[in-house]
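Hi R.,

Here's the chain you asked about this morning:
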Amino acid sequence: MNKHSIFFKITLFFTVMIITTHIIIFLGYNLTKQQQIDIYVSKYMKTLHRVTKKIMDKNRPPFGDEFREEGEDKHFFFRPPPPPPHEKPSLDESLMNQELKVYDLEISNISYEKIKKIGTYIASDDEWEMYEYEKFRYFYMNDKFRKVLLKDNTRNTENTEYIVYLTILLNIVFITFYIFLIRKLQPLRKLKNDIVKFSKGTLEIDTSCLGKDEISEVSNEFDKAIKEIKLLQNSRDLFLRNIMHELKTPITKGLLISNMMDDSKFKTSLKKAFFRLEYLLSEFARIEEFTSKNIKIEKKEFRIIDILDHSLDILLCDIDAIDLEVVDNIIVKVDYELFALALKNLLDNAMKYGETKPKVVIEDNTIYIKNKGSKLLKPIIEYNKPFNKEYENSNGGLGLGLYIVHHILIAHDLKLEYKHTESQNIFIIKFS
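And here is the predicted structure, written out as tokens:
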């Protein structure tokens, strides 16, 4: 998945959201759990203190100078002082359980050693420890006054289960929404792929969508536009094929008749006119191939000198028509006919518009086509357009030469460069 695609970004967003949610739940749970432990410890210690004090107060005899009046007599009662602090008070277990029952607590029937072994440790401090066993909490108090293990009879409804359920629920919500969003955006991916095919000239695509959202509407409108373009192109192709076929027939007949005529100035002019018409038709055929992107490339390895020789054959010229300098006899991987056509157009322009015969230099994986003449009036990119007015005259054609060269080189992933030095126009084709 491309890291710049919207699907990657959505996936990354939901992944971060799920991880962040888990972290927040984990931290919140741990903070809540510690607060709960503090609350329980405070509860157990206060309860122990309260129960112990209550039992001690009930069992303590009167002491000091206290009097009780009964009729006329006054009796003196003496209450012994409380035991020293270092002595542990003796408390009856049954009395403790009676008082603890009010708080849903009791003294554990399981020994501390056993609960420590089989229970789940929760927390501890210097004077207490807390364990869990069979969903019940056990609190062990060990200070200088007492050693007692309490059992909390309130079944421990551990929030862990709720946390797990909440986490699972949130995961389901995020994943469901993610799947829903991806499914909703799936037509967008298909539309993007179809647009890429369309940009390469493929019209045999179907972007129609059954949905009623905005993406579906765009897909359906684009599908309508493709069908309209396809219809127009079919009409255009039919028109071009018919008109070119209809024109070729009279031209062929005219050339045949002109060849049967006696030699004369009229015959020469007539043949030139028919050759001119035939040339224009071939140029139109080439421009139609490039504009409709019906051109097919079959690349193979050839010597550049052989391709150049074929270009001269197309021009009906021999090698003496150019000044050739071969420094490196390079081998290139190109379409033989198309690349020969590109070189033919460059040589043709050099011959027509140059003051001397063109010079071709082959060296260092580069072809240089030079001709002496004035510098081009506009940047080379302007001459890559069809029907250039500077070339549109009776001798030079329709100004399609460089346009065809430009598209042939593009089809080969090459580029035509131009520079003017020492009164020479230099066209350069570099091979990587």
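One quick note: The chain has three domains: 1-60+90-195, 201-294, 298-430.

Cheers,
M.
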